[in-house]
Amino acid sequence: MKRRFEALVGVIPGLVRCTIGIDVAHTPDSADVALYSEFESRAALDAYQPHPAHQEIVAFLKDVRTERRVVDYEL
Fold first, then answer.
1. Residue 4 has what pLDDT?
2. Which residues, 6 or more positions from 18, have their beta carbon under 8 angstroms from its beta carbon?
3. Which are the contacts of 53, defined by CB distance < 8 A and separation ≥ 6?
4. Is 39 helix (H, G, I), strand (E, B) or coil?
5. What single DSSP character describes residue 8?
6. Topology (CATH level 3) of domain 2-64
7. What pLDDT sits at residue 75?
8. Are 23 and 33 within 8 A, CB to CB?
9. What is the model's pLDDT at position 50?
C-alpha cells in the first residue's frame, strides 16, 4: 500500500506529496496506517478522487481495510 500511494506522485496531476506512515506504537488507540497528501489546489484534489490510478488503489483497499477515516482541509 505504501509503495502504491507514493508512486502516484508524478502520475496524478496536481498531487504534490503523498506519504504513508506505518504505526510503530501498536496501541489500542492507534491506526495501522496514516496517509498524508498535498495537492496544488482544491481542483487537483477533486481530480485525484476519480483518477484511474487512484481508483486502482481504492479497489485494492476495499479488500484489505477494516476502517477508514478522512480529513480534507485547506490552510
1. 93
2. 5, 6, 8, 9, 35, 36, 37, 38
3. 8, 11, 12
4. strand
5. T
6. Alpha-Beta Plaits (3.30.70)
7. 86
8. yes
9. 97
Tell me the pTM.
Answer: 0.85
How far are the Cα atoms of 7, 13, 44, 48, 69 from residue 75, in angstroms, in the given order?
A: 25, 20, 15, 19, 20
Residue stretches of the chain with pLDDT short of 50:
none
Identity of residue 23 = D
Contact 32, 39 (CB under 8 A): no
- From the number of C-beta atoms within 10 Å of its C-beta (0-12, 13-18, 19+), residue 15 rates as buried
Q: Say how many residues make up the chain.
A: 75
Domain positions in the chain? 2-64
